Amino acid sequence: MSSQYFAEQPVAAHRPGTVHVVLPDVRLALGTDSGVFSPARLDPGTRFLLAAAPPPPAVGDVLDLGCGYGPLALVLASRAPAAQVWAVDVNRRAIDLCERNATHAGLANVRCVGVDEAGPDTAQLPERYDLIWSNPPIRIGKPALHAMLASWLPRLAPGAAAYLVVQRHLGSDSLQRWLEQAGWTAARFAARAGYRILEVRG
Predict the structure, then answer these.
(1) What predicted TM-score, i.e. pTM, was given to this entire model?
(2) CATH level 3 topology of 42-201
(3) 194 — alpha (psi -120 to 50), left (phi > 0) or beta?
(4) What rounded mean pLDDT belongs to the chain?
């Protein structure tokens, strides 16, 4: 398990690289490494979420749940420079990369926090978020995924939404059904090339 991107301390040998995020409004060069999610290219689901999700609120606290080396968090921070972006992940290598990438990009409104020190109840994090974005770690398995979402989604502020991107063949429809059974309003916000963006509200 420690070789997986959802391990706290990946054991894969370091292999630094760079991924370029090129969007109409944002251009970033992000440092990557082995042992993190999609280190060689911008994952298609992440790219779809960046392209299709509605813009973040101009101010407030927003969350990138499972931030990896930071593509979602840094784009959120670029698009909403007056907002505070919280980037959380279990993977310490990913958190270190996210911090370095934010510093390199000059994005002082990004806070990268390891989930071992940043469970939803920690005083280090806000009690409520005005937006949540996530390309969730589906491969951790349904019980762990459901537990993760059940911990973080209740932190949505009244009227706020979460946007989750999931591949159809990895269970986007079953995740939508589970969210609805758990009491959330979950709707398909967008779909493209086998990916679904789910909009989740309380």
Answers:
(1) 0.92
(2) Rossmann fold (3.40.50)
(3) left
(4) 92
